[in-house]
Amino acid sequence: MSNSSGADAEGASTSSKNEIIKGLNEDLAREYKAIIQYVVFSSTLKGAEYGDIAEQLKEHASQELAHALEVARQIDYLGGDPTVEVKNAEYSQDSKKMLEIDLRQEQETIKNYRERIRQAESSGEYALSEALRDIIRQEQDHEIDLKDALGLR
Ligand SMILES: [Fe+2]
Ligand SMILES: [Fe+2]
């Protein structure tokens, strides 16, 4: 069998690039949601038992903004349009419930970035996969902070 034609290879790489752009826009909408939740929750979190985590959540908010900027830059670089859609932000007056909401969101985010790294690598987008690895490392730190605050570690 001969190698696939240039046209086929081109077509495949265009469609996988479109898949990555679509996925990154989901990731971007998820980052916007994370920013909103951390901004609101870091300023309303009550309870002496949550002393340290309020400060950490402010830090998370800034890091999620940096992630959003990086993901948007990567989408633009791939030739896509960064979304203005936001995933529906969640909120609870109950501090424990809100931390649980944030934890679930971080775990969902990590799962999605893992998938995106896999897609990027199978398409030869190595600069993208490296950028996503830096992001996922911080999401894992966020997950640890939330687990600590919830006494889950
Ligand atoms: Fe993030
Ligand atoms: Fe995060």
Summarize the topology.
Layout: H1 6-44, H2 51-77, H3 95-122, H4 126-149
Helix pairs in contact: 1-2, 1-3, 2-4, 3-4
Bound molecules: fe (ii) ion (FE2) (2 copies).
> On the 0-100 scale, what is the average pLDDT?
92
First and last CA, distance = 55 Å
Bound molecules: fe (ii) ion
Domains (count)? 1
CATH topology: Ferritin
**Oligomer, anyone?**
single chain
Structural class: mainly alpha
| Total count of helical runs of at least 4 residues | 4
Instruction: Give the name of the CATH superfamily.
Output: Ferritin, core subunit, four-helix bundle
Q: In angstroms, what is the radius of gyration? A: 18 Å
Strand count, sense and barrel status of the largest sheet are: none
Helix content: over 70%
- The CATH class assignment is Mainly Alpha
What is the string of helix and strand elements?
A: HHHH
Which CATH architecture? Up-down Bundle
Low-confidence stretches: 1-7
What overall form do the CA principal axes indicate?
A: elongated
> Beta-sheet strand percentage?
under 5%
